[in-house]
């Protein structure tokens, strides 16, 4: 409790800070507010007088990720080129972009996770070619996939997906035991408008590890039936591993948990393992647990593939070929931007020019980060892009919904696969020409 104010003749105690009069404090606050408004007005005026060009950019980074992106990528670009980046971050970027395109007001540059979605926009003549803006040898064809003779996107950030996280100190025997218990998997299927994708990641990875990249490639490109025995086996394997249709409490836990909160189940001692992409390692729960990883193929029943990885990426594309937008695209594809983004250990670069630093990872970076960066750049490994992200949007979305339905009602699998097969054959779908760097 603070002591009551003393009379005016009372001296302050030695070393005590004298509180300024309230009127002076109020004046200072008002003055500070006026200065802040003045500074903002000056910035706007300077931009107007200089006619500083602006480029609009849509991506999915919000919160802390947005701050990292602004600090490591946007700010250096603005300082270097004197071009203002009007950034919009949204976790529902696909829906935002679709609405913007429909209204005729798309952003100049967009960063999306799905080459399938970008291929659809390219087919609608909404994207501009970027092959003349990126280094020819920077990215492999599985990352910057040619479509109808042009390249329309390239990766700004990449992640590895065929991995299982576990707490440091967990023995190999304990890992295998936990992998056989559905309740030991930290699984959250929720993700707003895109709920279900954690389940598609599981199924895709299981198919890749059990049947290899050739089968995976055919399926991801719409060339293999969803009712193929190998595809069906991937679904049922996932169902057995995570307890599809099992104890109600376990299924509801997975359905009601947001994917970004699944690692919180680890903190509450409700699970031990998480099948999730490399980005999840930055969650507080895995940082506190000093999370380690093992290739998923070591824990998936029936896995036969060797050194084969599912990967994902945030892909930059150009919608308006303005001078400012082209400079931004060229910058995002530069080794400088790729290294800046990966330096904060918030993602990885697959730019071949970054090989000497393992994706931008310095010698002081965490061992898990250096290891994952090296795997993404390993020429001897097989890397296959996330299959659902590579599929046409309608198939991708139906796949995610089917994963949710299967988790709750695995007995409906035949109907779910038949429905996906029918959708696969729909007229007018654009399929990417490749998803694996080799098969």
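Q: What amino acid sequence fits the structure above?
A:
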């Amino acid at each position: 409790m603070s002591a009551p104010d003393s009379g005016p003749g009372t001296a302050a105690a030695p070393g005590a800070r004298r509180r300024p009069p309230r009127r002076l404090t109020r004046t200072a606050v008002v003055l500070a507010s006026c200065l802040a408004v003045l500074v903002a007005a000056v910035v706007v005026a300077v931009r107007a007088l200089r006619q500083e060009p602006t480029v609009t950019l849509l991506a999915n980074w919000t919160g802390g990720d947005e701050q990292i992106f602004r600090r490591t990528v946007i700010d250096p670009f603005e300082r270097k080129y004197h071009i203002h980046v009007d950034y919009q971050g949204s976790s529902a970027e696909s829906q935002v972009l679709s609405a913007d395109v429909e209204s005729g007001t798309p952003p100049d540059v967009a960063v999306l996770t799905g080459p399938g979605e970008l291929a659809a926009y390219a087919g609608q003549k909404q994207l501009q070619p970027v092959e003349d803006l990126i280094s020819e040898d920077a990215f492999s064809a599985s990352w910057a996939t040619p479509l109808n003779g042009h390249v329309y996107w390239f990766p700004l950030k990449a992640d590895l997906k065929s991995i299982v996280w576990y707490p440091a100190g967990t023995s190999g025997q304990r890992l295998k035991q936990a992998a056989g218990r559905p309740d030991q998997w930290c699984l959250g299927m929720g993700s707003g408008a895109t709920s279900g994708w954690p389940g598609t990641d599981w199924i895709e990875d299981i198919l890749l590890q059990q049947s290899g990249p050739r089968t995976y490639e055919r399926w991801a490109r719409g060339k293999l039936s969803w009712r193929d025995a190998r595809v069906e086996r991937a679904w049922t394997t996932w169902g057995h591993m995570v307890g599809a249709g099992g104890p109600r409490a376990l299924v509801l836990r997975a359905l009601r948990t947001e994917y970004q909160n699944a690692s919180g189940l680890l903190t509450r001692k409700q699970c031990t393992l998480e099948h999730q992409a490399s980005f999840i390692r930055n969650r507080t729960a895995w940082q506190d647990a000093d999370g380690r990883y093992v290739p998923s193929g070591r824990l998936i029943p029936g896995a036969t593939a060797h050194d084969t990885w599912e990967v994902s990426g945030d892909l930059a594309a150009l919608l308006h070929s303005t001078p400012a937008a082209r400079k931004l695209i060229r910058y995002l594809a530069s080794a400088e931007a790729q290294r800046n983004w990966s330096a904060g250990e918030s993602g990885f670069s697959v730019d071949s020019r970054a090989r000497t630093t393992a994706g931008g990872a310095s010698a002081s970076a965490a061992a898990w980060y250096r290891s994952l960066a090296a795997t993404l750049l390993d020429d001897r490994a097989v890397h296959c892009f996330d299959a659902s992200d590579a599929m046409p949007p309608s198939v991708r979305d139906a796949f995610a919904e089917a994963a949710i339905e299967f988790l709750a009602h695995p007995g409906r699998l035949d109907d779910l696969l038949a429905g996906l097969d029918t959708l696969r054959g729909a007229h007018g779908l654009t399929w990417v020409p490749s998803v694996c760097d080799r098969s």
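Q: And what stands out in the fold?
A: The longest strand covers residues 308-318.
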